[in-house]
Amino acid sequence: AYISKDANPVTDAAAIQAIRLIARNLRQAVALGSNLKARENMAYASLLAGMAFNNANLGYVHAMAHQLGGLYDMPHGVANAVLLP
């Protein structure tokens, strides 16, 4: 969403905050599942990321990644990374 041609200040703010929350909480949420604050922050990051990408139109790379992933049994994130410049 952050690099979408249709991004705007609202989607950028949501995407940046999601990135910050993920960077600060992902390790703890995975390593220590009982850390409810880290898990709460990851849930909030997911909400913000969803708001960002649903309002910034992800574009052709995202659409092609669905096809590539299905054809080669590739995780969606990996397919996006392969297709992005």
From TrEMBL:
Keywords: Oxidoreductase. InterPro entries: ADH_Fe_C (IPR056798), ADH_Fe_CS (IPR018211), Alcohol_dehydrogenase_Fe (IPR039697). Gene3D superfamilies: Dehydroquinate synthase-like - alpha domain. The keyword Plastid does not apply. It is an enzyme of class 1 (oxidoreductase). One of its GO terms (molecular function) is metal ion binding. The keyword Metal-binding does not apply. PROSITE patterns: ADH_IRON_2 (PS00060). Its EC number is 1.1.1.1. This is Iron-containing alcohol dehydrogenase. It comes from Klebsiella aerogenes. The lineage of its organism: Bacteria, Pseudomonadati, Pseudomonadota, Gammaproteobacteria, Enterobacterales.
